[in-house]
Design brief:
Layout lengths: L8 E6 L2 E7 L2 E5 L5 E4 L4 E4 L8 E8 L9 E5 L7 E8 L5 E8 L5 E6 L2 E2 L5 E3 L6 E4 L5 E8 L4 E3 L3 E3 L10 E8 L13 E4 L4 H60 L1
Antiparallel strand pairs: 1-2, 1-6, 2-3, 4-5, 6-7, 8-9, 8-17, 9-13, 10-11, 10-14, 12-13, 14-15, 14-16, 17-18
């Protein structure tokens, strides 16, 4: 309403429960006065610190001086939290298809949409799922820059996306790719978008085998270094002992020569 000056009496309701009573420019009662205010001059009713419990139907009923009710004014208030983050996870399947899931955090009634190289994803590019769901499987021959967007009535957020070309890996490994975007994330160029590559359970045996091989190589290197050090130490000790033995032999010869001279 523009003003209460023409209204003899008015009531504000929330879901059939009265929250404010007024008479012209006078507020008779305000049941949520601690966090709301009403300005009779321009008919503005303000509620601060909204919460989910404030969700509902608000109705203004007004009456003229003869007590006749005027046309009620109704407003439906929906409280929704904005989307705060989006997580995109992809995984290569055994036949070269790609399973991709998109999830959001903090948003009410999220809606999902997909684009490939800037164009809306089509049903022909999908093996299962649909372009409005958060879980899809792309066909084997599909490639490009895939982006997931999540939105509701008050917010919208998109992942940075990632580029993929082929899921048929020669070594048979299945790689999963994760892209997490929050309200503080700055998406960079698609070639350098933040990604994290993780190995799925199918590749744990390969990973363990590789680690064992690395440990064996390190042990062998350690043994070789030890024996080289031991050999050098032995050669050094042997070399330092040779001169002492020669001096001893020479001294014996000299004694024998002197003994012979005294006999003559």
């Amino acid at each position: 309403m523009n003003s209460t000056s023409e209204m003899h009496r008015y009531h504000w309701f929330k879901n059939k429960t009265i929250i404010l009573i007024g008479r012209k420019n006078l507020i008779v009662a305000n049941m949520i006065e601690n966090r709301s205010s009403f300005t009779p001059s321009d008919g503005t009713f303000r509620i601060n610190n909204l919460s989910r419990t404030d969700d509902g139907e608000y109705t203004l009923k007004s009456f003229d001086s003869k007590g006749r009710q005027l046309d009620p004014q109704i407003l439906q208030l929906n409280i929704q939290a904005p989307v705060s983050s989006v997580l995109l996870v992809s995984e290569c399947l055994s036949q070269g298809e790609m399973r991709v899931s998109c999830s959001s955090d903090g948003g009410d009634s999220p809606q999902y949409s997909w684009t490939l190289d800037g164009h809306t994803l089509t049903d022909a590019q999908l093996l299962s799922g649909n372009k409005d769901s958060n879980n899809i499987i792309l066909r084997q021959d599909v490639s490009g820059q895939l982006v997931c967007s999540v939105s509701n009535h008050i917010s919208r957020m998109s992942t940075c996306g990632f580029r993929f070309t082929d899921c048929s890996l020669s070594n048979g490994m299945h790689l999963s790719q994760r892209v997490l975007v929050t309200s503080q994330t700055q998406c960079t160029d698609s070639a350098t978008a933040p990604t994290m590559i993780t190995v799925t359970e199918a590749d744990h045996s390969l990973l363990i085998c590789g680690l064992r091989t690395a440990v064996v190589i390190l042990i062998l290197i350690g043994i070789a270094v030890y024996f080289v050090w031991k050999k050098k130490k032995y050669e050094k000790a042997e070399g330092s002992a040779v001169p002492e033995e020669m001096d001893y032999e020479n001294s014996v010869v000299m004694v024998e020569m002197r003994s012979s001279a005294s006999g003559l």
